[in-house]
Amino acid sequence: MKKLFAEFKEFIARGNVMDMAIGVIIATAFGKITTSLVNDVFMPFLGWIFGARDMTALNVVVRPAEVDAAGEVVKEAITIGFGTFVGTIIDFILVALVVFAVVKALNKMKKKEEAPAEPEPEKPDPQLELLTEIRDLLKK
Over 70: is that where the pLDDT of 117 sits? Predict the structure, then answer.
């Protein structure tokens, strides 16, 4: 049991596991932000365009509910909830755009890091320098 606990502790202590955990936490918070943006900003605007107060209420009724004489539902209505679907698509597109921007920025940073540094100019051989000086002195 101690060995299993020690192995688990070593696994958790690795940097990449901690990075992944932080990424999951941030992604969860970001998901809440985008969901709020879609539900509270974009969907009311689209509802205004389509003339509906609540986009989630925009449904196509395929088969209306059947009600008996007592007012109880015998068969549930079959509806296609395209308002909710549109909201989910907008949510996905926003998350995909942000992920794309982050990946693009990371790739740009990696390219800068991986770009080879400018090579230093080669220093001539000391013997060659000495010979060049001697030649120049002899010319004078």
Answer: no
Cα separation, 132 vs 140, in Å, equals 13
User: Mean pLDDT for the chain?
Assistant: 81
pTM listed for this prediction: 0.51
**Residue 40 pLDDT greater than 70, yes or no:** yes
Cα separation, 65 vs 73, whole angstroms: 7
Angle at 93 between CA 91 and CA 97, to 5 degrees: 120
CATH for 2-117 is 1.10.1200.120
Buried b (16+ CB within 10 A) or exposed e, 126-136: eeeeeeeeeee
Measured distance between the N- and C-terminal CA atoms of the chain, rounded to whole angstroms = 87
